[in-house]
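Changelog note: in this version the structure field was regenerated for every chain. One regenerated record is shown below for reference.
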Amino acid sequence: MTNRRTARGNMLDMESMMAQNGDVIATGNMRVNARGDRIDSDGNVIETRANVAKGSYTTTTQKLAKVVSTKEPVTATEQKKAAEKATKRSPKRDAPIDDIIPDEMAKDDWVEDKDGNFVKKG
């Protein structure tokens, strides 16, 4: 048991207080009691705290499992999509920069000044 001393010096046992008040409706709009069980408007337990946590955990982990990506495709359809994507790559992406820029563009009349701005020669 955990005994705590209050600001006035009185001893307070938090565990026994929580056990005594577990069925009390909690303040707020979540419709739960002090233990965390879901309750209806009459105060009857609809779903226990353990079932609420279990349901929340399973739905969250299933969503995460779908979102998480791996380096290798998981299904056959994803493998096909990855293979098609690899074959559709542009040859310009892998080409050297000299092959991409035409000679006319490379030999223009622009130069960089001392401030880093590009200005026409002359």
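Spot check on this record: Residues 12 and 82 are 63 Å apart (CA to CA). The longest helix spans residues 49-67.
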